[in-house]
Amino acid sequence: MQTTLSPDSAFAQTGLSLPPAPTPLGVYKPYLIDGKYLYLSGHGPVQDDKSLIIGRIGADMDMEAGKLAARQVGLTMLSTIKENLGSLDRVKRVIKVLGMVNCTPDFERHPYIINGCSELFAQVWGEENGIGVRSAVGFGSLPDNIPVEIEALFELV
Questions:
Q1: Nearest in space to 18 (alpha carbons), one of 151, 152, 124
Q2: What DSSP element (H or E) covers 142?
Q3: pLDDT of res. 3
Q4: Which residues pair with 70 in a beta bridge?
Q5: Strand boundaries in 31-122, DSSP class E
Q6: Structure-derived torsion over alpha carbons of residues 46, 9, 131, 63, reported in degrees to the nearest 10
Q7: What residues are paired with 103 via a beta bridge?
Q8: Whether the Cβ atoms of residue 155 and residue 93 lie closer than 8 Å to each other
Q9: How far is Cα 122 from Cα 72, in angstroms, rounded to an integer?
Q10: Does residue 1 surpass a pLDDT of 90?
């Protein structure tokens, strides 16, 4: 009989750390709850020291560094959830992820980059609830020259 870990326990098993949850630098809310849905605004790759990962994929960093930056965005999103909702266990499932990749015009592997975040969510909420619908698109620039920005929609327990 297989036991399913809670999202908080599953995250603990990754051995990864959560960076500080970012505070808005513009006129927006980092999250919004509407009924049973949690909307997260676009998040960037905040590191443990509060600095951002900076760079353009295909120019300043390669695909593997870009994928790690997307995972860091996922960690930043998890931090926002934990800080504002108290626990990852409050989230039932991932519904939608929109991944924006700051890349050179010839770069075409956007989905590979965003897998860094999607694989993290699958580890936390499991294959069934951690993988939702998704778009992964390329942009000519992103705020502060971050390599990845991701927003997401979740269903709450």
A1: 124
A2: none
A3: 60
A4: none
A5: 31-34, 37-43, 91-102
A6: 40
A7: 57
A8: yes
A9: 15
A10: no
